[in-house]
Design brief:
Elements: H1 7-19, H2 25-36, H3 38-49, H4 55-79, H5 83-102, H6 115-129, H7 142-156, H8 163-180, H9 187-196, H10 202-214, H11 222-234, H12 251-276, E1 282-284, H13 288-301, H14 309-319, E2 320-322, H15 330-338, H16 342-363
Parallel strand pairs: 1-2
Helix pairs in contact: 1-4, 2-5, 4-5, 6-8, 8-9, 11-12, 13-15, 13-16, 14-15
Length: 364
Amino acid sequence: MEQVPLFAVNDQLLQVIEEAPRLTIQEEKKIIADTQKLSIRYMRDLCHNAARQSMKHIVHGTQYVVCWLLNHIHEKQQKNHTLFREKIATQLASFLAFLEQQSSSWFNLDAHMPHVIWQPIHEKIQVKIERGKAFVLNNIEQDLVAVFQNMYTDTTTHPTPSFKQAHYWQALMQALCLEQEHPQYDTARCILLLIRYNCNHPAFIRYVFSRYLLALDASQNHHEHWQEALLHINRIIPEKETALLVKEPDCKSALMQLIQTEIDAIHFSDKAKNIMQVACPFQYTLSVTQLAVWLRMQTDSGMIEHHNTTELIRYFAENALTNRNQNIAFKSLYNKYHQPERAAVQVMLEYNVRMQNILKALLQ
């Protein structure tokens, strides 16, 4: 089996890290000096092995071993911290940065970043996303702040992010720091920046779409609203080769698809209205909160088959009346559908008992 470059040096370091012998100051200085020459030894071994192995194999092998050594040092430091191991880790981290810079075409950015390298990056970011003097999310809606913090935690704790994700968060935080200096920095500008940097986490995409959804005015032309939203998103020019989640669709495309679905649903709804020509709306003796629970019962039980919950709720808001409310607001029915009130559920349980008695009577 072929030995990866720097095998002898790695073997020496592993022995030092694992056995932790009692070294003299001169011996420690010699080992640290040898470690500082890793870049030179790597280039020498690279020239020797390049004719027999692919560059990808050489770089990946070297990266894997150095990352393993750094993680091994971290584990040892957790139990017994020594200045000597800290110096070795610093030199190994410096060499890994050199390897990434010199061999960027073959460096595995999807590999997990060693904890020793990630920890100082994480501490700098943590200070900026938690409320304090360095907080970069001032004047931003609390809901977006929570989404942002959850996205960061979700993508950086398994156990560490990949090199690619770590670089992404560094670039994004740098952009946010610059954006914060703009006199009109607010939630809208922050959202545009996150879309531009392809923040394609599902939680952020849901947040942005919900924001457009809740901005609908009952008196507004819904088709125009979604057309404006589509145009707004389409104008954003994304950063090249930037993504929070590599395997997920990009943020801009996902939002445009959701908005286009709403536009298509409106077209379908308009055609259905023209065909059905509803003469008079449905009238219920229920309150809006109770109507929302009743509608939820029908959909969750499978009595009503639908493909777009939003359009179904909008249809009932436009075509239903209650004894207490002649004009049902879409936002109100939408919110109460997704967050049923306990009192309304109890009332519908009473109606359910009545309906069961009626069905039993029909069977006799």
